[in-house]
Amino acid sequence: MSKDSFDYVSIYLRSFFEGPRYQRRNLDRWNTITWSSILEKYTGKSTFEIVQLIINELRELQYGLTPALRTTEFLYNKIITTYQDSEACKYAVSDPLTALGKLLYKL
Predict the structure, then answer these.
(1) Which distant-in-sequence residues (6+ apart) come within 8 Å of 2 by Cβ?
(2) pTM listed for this prediction
(3) Using CA atoms, how far apart are residues 107 and 104, in angstroms rounded to an integer?
(4) Can you tell me the distance from the alpha carbon of 77 to that of 96, in angstroms, rounded to the nearest whole number?
(5) Which residue stretches of 1-107 are H helix?
(6) Which tens digits make up the pLDDT trace of 46-56?
(7) Residue 77, domain member (yes or no)
(8) pLDDT averaged over the chain?
(9) Containing domain of residue 92, as a range?
């Protein structure tokens, strides 16, 4: 592949902007998401809206993680740990279902 080709340039740009630093920054943001941090950020929102905001934010960040961490299982575990702090959602995650879709529906 020549250095002047479009494919080379696009791979170079992607690795520059979405490389290890980008992935690490997304993992740091991923790890700071908690029930209380989202409640603090979005005061006045209903429990349902907070649940949706957390899920949306995690799904968005998921694609910026390293490929090994983009799995459904990693997202599933993060959702379980995030909602354990919520009185409203504690029941849904106390006996979580094995499928992500079913867990999200239960929340």
Answers:
(1) 8
(2) 0.75
(3) 5
(4) 10
(5) 6-17, 20-32, 35-41, 47-62, 72-83, 90-94, 100-106
(6) 988 988 999 99
(7) yes
(8) 84
(9) 6-106
